[in-house]
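Q: For a teaching handout, I want to show students what a protein-ligand complex looks like in token form. Below are the inputs, and the small molecule is adenosine-5'-triphosphate. Please produce the holo structure.
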Amino acid sequence: MAGDELGSLRRTRYSADVSAGADGERAVVMGWVASVRGHGAISFMTVRDRDGDVQVVAKAGSCPDGVRERIAGLKVHSSVAVSGTVRASPRSPSGAEVVPDEIRVFSEAARTPPFEPAAVTVKNIDTRLEARHIDLRRRPLQHVFRARSAVLRAVREHLYGEGFTEVSTPKMISSATEGGAALFSIFYYDRGAFLAQSPQLYKEQLTMSFEKVFEIAPIFRAEPSRTARHLSEAISIDVEEAFVDYADAMDGAERVVGAARGAAARYAGANAGSGLAVPEMPAGGIPRRAYGDVVDAARDAGAGVEWGDDLHPSALRKAGLEGFYFIKDWPAGPKPFYVKPGGPGGPRASESFDLMFGDLEISSGSTRISGRAELEERMRNKGMDVGDFAHHLGAFDYGVPPHAGFGIGLERLMMALTGTANIRDASFYPRDADRLAP
Ligand code: ATP
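A: Here is the structure, written as tokens, with adenosine-5'-triphosphate included.
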């Protein structure tokens, strides 16, 4: 059945403006049916919009019978407009309800949904992801994604405030930047190409012309690992700066995370009942632990780790590490070719750091190699073909400055800032090894 036309009808209030103070005023509300209950002569409907819910109470005698009957027959998720009068009502959660005199049903839901709009939890994440369009209407996710939006805005404003220029770099590339294994291959006209794993080399080059740059954009990782913290397509907040080293970059990452946390905390403060678990920033700043010390602590706690090993979540949990902290001075060996070896950790270490939240890696950063000969040597040691990077290496003939930077995974940051357990719930339409739709 064709739906009613919008015509010239326009919303006059959001749900937040249907309050006891507006008693007796006219209102046109629009949204989606979240629930309907009928008891013969009276029908209750909840209409959910951007801000929250509006109670619509259609009682025989106080609204036209046709309107009441139409409301009683509606399915949840139908999109509607209700015109009527606001009435203060202590029974309604918002303190007011709308008594309708007209209803328009723009699009009637065609089937019964796999879960209710008001469901706080739905057991199977795949059931939700298959119907992501309506899953995203559920309040818990609305809060995560609105907080995400606030965080992105705060991070942008913070970086602009520090004098960074926002840049965009190509996502279709001809060679790997983070090592060969995790690339997606694509067709580029008659040639093979890849989706970018990170903007690393471009952002480094851009420090030659803009000094302080950042980019917020997708990164693509062909991750075979099926975990609650890996996506195939993630959003990275990438920051790079000339004439600084990794200690400055840690300071910078700490300020970005502080700005992000502040935005999440303000969101949670303004939305009581959001359920977001926003963590505190450590008093006295984010602690900076040397990799060697973390290895010792994990070993003392019974984890089988040696200097040179990666630090798996289980080892970090054993070491009892919680909240935000940095692990710095990682072994150089496994680090990408552009990470500067040496530094305070010794000749086998590197000027590098990871920003952690408990056992979750949020960000990694480093001082970068700024000399061509050293960079080429690192590439050869890693078995890379220097010829593939001719353009990038060419930059080093024209005064590459000392520089450092970091990349923060936005979804992982949001997991930390909201208490979201599965990274898929920090991405609107997550991509993983098993999921390329919706
Ligand atoms: P991990 O060891 O956890 O797989 P990584 O060492 O591959 O991560 P980097 O290449 O250092 O990660 O990327 C920088 C940041 O980008 C990470 O700290 C993380 O926040 C984010 N990131 C990287 N890969 C992914 C992914 N597959 N899914 C979500 N976020 C990611």
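A: Two things your students might notice: The mean pLDDT is 96. The pocket of adenosine-5'-triphosphate is lined by residues 178, 221, 223, 230-231, 234, 236, 361-364, 407, 409, 411-412 (CB under 6 Å).
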